[in-house]
Design goal:
Blueprint: H1 5-29, H2 35-57, H3 77-100, H4 106-128, H5 140-164
Length: about 170
C-alpha cells in the first residue's frame, strides 16, 4: 500500500490534535497545569486539527463536492468522520475559550474527550473496512489509531508543558 502524502498528513495531524487534547484534559482532571498551558494547548490542538483538515482536501478527486461526503452518515465511516471532526474542533475551541475566560467547565472537557474517541473509531474503521487491505481488516486497527494518536498527542503535550509550564514537565 502506498497512501498519498495527504492521507498520511491527515491521519497524523488529526491524531496528534486528538491526543493533545486528551492529554490536556487528563492534566486538567489531575489538577495539573492551568490556563497558561490549556489555552495555548487548545490552540495548538486546533492548529493540528485544522492542518489535517486542509490536508484532507488534497486527496479529494472533486473538492467542490466535499460537502457531499457527510451525506451518507448512516452507512459510511468517512461520513461519520466528516461530521465528528468539526464537532470536536468546536468542543476544543469552546474548552480553550472557557479556560481563557477563567470559567472552565467539566461538561466541555467531557464532551471534548468523548468526541476524539469517536473520531479515532471513525478513522480506524475507514481503514478496517477496506476489503483490499486484508492486513488492516481487524478491530486492532481502531486500537492502533487510538494508541498512535494518543502517543503523538502526549508527546506534543510534553513539549508544550516543557515550554510553557515547566513544573508540569
Amino acid at each position: 500500500m502506498r497512501p498519498a502524502w495527504s492521507v498520511i498528513l491527515l491521519t497524523t495531524l488529526i491524531g496528534a490534535g486528538q491526543g493533545l487534547f486528551l492529554a490536556l484534559f487528563a492534566a486538567e482532571l489531575a489538577g495539573l497545569g492551568g490556563s497558561t498551558l490549556f489555552v495555548p494547548g487548545a490552540a495548538v490542538s486546533l492548529a493540528l486539527l485544522g492542518a489535517g483538515l486542509v490536508a484532507s482536501f488534497f486527496h479529494l478527486g472533486r473538492p467542490e463536492r466535499a460537502w457531499r461526503s457527510a451525506a451518507m452518515w448512516r452507512s459510511s465511516w468517512l461520513s461519520r468522520e466528516v461530521i465528528v471532526l468539526p464537532a470536536f474542533m468546536a468542543a476544543v475551541l469552546a474548552w480553550g475559550a472557557a479556560h481563557a475566560l477563567g470559567e472552565p467547565t467539566l461538561a466541555l472537557g467531557v464532551a471534548g474527550a468523548v468526541l476524539p474517541l469517536a473520531l479515532f473509531v471513525c478513522t480506524g474503521m475507514i481503514y478496517a473496512c477496506l476489503p483490499f487491505l486484508q492486513e488492516w481488516r481487524t478491530p486492532l486497527t481502531v486500537v492502533n489509531f487510538t494508541l498512535l494518536g494518543s502517543a503523538s498527542g502526549l508527546s506534543a503535550a510534553a513539549a508544550l508543558a516543557a515550554h510553557l509550564h515547566a513544573p508540569l514537565a
